[in-house]
Each structure stands twice: as C-alpha cells, then as structure tokens.
Amino acid sequence: MTTQTRIQRIFATLLTLLALTAHSEDKQVSIAVGSWPPFLSQEQQHDGYVAHLIRDVFESQGYQVSIQFMPWERAYREAAAGQHDATAVWMDKEERRLDFWYSDPVLSETFVFFHRSSEPFDWQNYSDLSDLTLGGGISYSYGEAMDQAIQDGTITLQRVSTTLQNFNRLAAGYIDAFPEEMSVGYFNLRQLPHVYDEIRHHSKPILQNNSFVLFPRGEAKSQQLRKDFNQGLQKFRDSGRYQNYYNNFNAGRYDLKPNSGQ
C-alpha cells in the first residue's frame, strides 16, 4: 500500500466519522419546559406523563431527548431564540404562531374554577366574578376570553408561582377561587389532605383546550422535527399506546418520586 493510498483511506475514515458525528448531533433534541405537575414535573416519575409521552415519541423516531426544566417565560424565550429545539406544552395563541410552528395536539385539557365548598360560588360570565378575589399562576394564560377579561379589568388575578400555593391561599380565605386544569388541580389537591374536603371545582368549564409542542420558526430543522414528531405521535394514537400514558397516570404510576419532599 502506497503512502498516498494510506492518506486517502485515513482521510475517508475521518470524513465518515465527521458525518456520523454530525448525524448524531442532528438526532439530539433539547426541549425547554416549565413545571406543571402532574403533566410536567421533575418530582414525578418520568418527569410527568406528558414529558414521558413526548420523550418516547421522539425516541421512537430515532432521536435522543434532553428535557430542560426552567421557568415558563424563560422556556418560551430561549426556545424562540433557537437555544432549544422545542418547548412544551403550550395552548394555541395567535402571537405564539409568529414565533413557532405547532405540533399536532399532544394534550386535551379542561380548565375550571376551584373554590371553597363551604361558600356559594357560581358564574356564567366573567362579570359575575368582578367583586371576587381570584388567584392564578404566574405567566399562565387561561384562554382568549379570560385573558381579555383580565386585560379589560373585568377581573383581576393575584398570581403566584404554584398550584399548591393557590390551594393554600384558597383554603386560608385569601382568595375566593382560582382557575386550573382539572386533572392538575385534583392531583395537587391530593397533596394537601388536610384541606381536600374543603375545596371543590365548579362544573362550568372556563376552557376546553388542546396543548402542543412548539418548534422555533427561525431554525432550519424545525419543520423536519415537527414532521417526525407528528408521525410518531400518530403511530402512538393508532396503536393505542397514546391512551396508555393517560391510563397509567390515572392508575398512579406517575405519582411523586420517593423523597420528593412532598
């Protein structure tokens, strides 16, 4: 073998290794998420059942997934700037479509008002709530209609960081009611057995909604990631695997990790 042949083979090997490295990097996905127990939480098994679903869908399509927890505002900002490949999960708002491509729906949600069971609470329109002290979550949107009522000053929200804080404030009488997704609300309420029987939800939905994985519009691979994710998600739905995540959640298989502090 001549020296030139050896050099050519070494060069070809290096090119192959570089190509494999680039391909490996292309198959890595960073997803920025906020904490939303029990759907997304570092204290849940598998980081919550929605995180588990999203991770498994991507992995079924050949990707390696890193889920990064951070405050919701930062997750949105960093993903929009291309520092992450996606962010999850978000409801549909027109202004978000300026920054992101949307996946197919990942999660269906029903938002309701939680209130003290010992006191009457009823509403049909947001004007019915104008004299009440309402809680809420920092940076949360509860749909266009409620967002508009807040913007117009029809209602005001005293916002805090967590659902548990809202339940404690509700039980103590600092607020009269607060909006939350029903499954999220009752999951958190089960962590507070001393007030569980003191709180219930109102039957009228605030919002029935879908949530999505968002892919930044400014990134070249976003469209391919979205296509691959949607294909994997549809396969999960068709096979019945998608429903298994929700069934396992209801069976308690995503409950708090041991030594989670709660």
TrEMBL record:
Pfam families xrefs: SBP_bac_3 (PF00497)
Xref: Gene3D superfamilies: Periplasmic binding protein-like II (3.40.190.10)
Record keywords, A-Z: Signal
Signal sequence range: 1-24
Ranges for domain Solute-binding protein family 3/N-terminal: 34-249
Family per similarity comment: Belongs to the bacterial solute-binding protein 3 family.
Protein name: ABC transporter substrate-binding protein
Organism, as annotated: Bacterioplanes sanyensis
